[in-house]
Amino acid sequence: MGEYPGNSYTAPNPFNTYHFFKAVAQQLSALPDNNKVDQILLHLVNALKTPIEREYYLTPLTGFFAGIKLERFEKAIAMMIQDSQLSHVIFKIAGALDYNESFLNLLLESVEKGELQIEGFYELTRNRFLMKLPSARVEEVANQLKNSEIIGTWIALKLLWSRYDQDGQDRWWSLIRDLVMTENLWSVEFEDLSENQAIRSLIRIIQEATDKDAIERCIHQLIRFMDTPVHNTFRMKDYAYEPLKVLLQSHFEITWPIISEALASQQGTSLYALLGSSTDINYTTGGQLENEGLLFKYGVEEEIFEWCKNQPINVLQRIARSLPIFHPTQPNTWHPFTKRFIDEFGDHNELLAEIQARMNSFGSTGSVEDMYQSYLVLFKELENHPKSNVLTWANWSIDFLPKRIKGERNFWEEWYL
Question: Which of 33, 108, 109, 110 has CB atoms 3.0–4.6 Å from 116's, for a disulfide?
Answer without folding.
Answer: 110
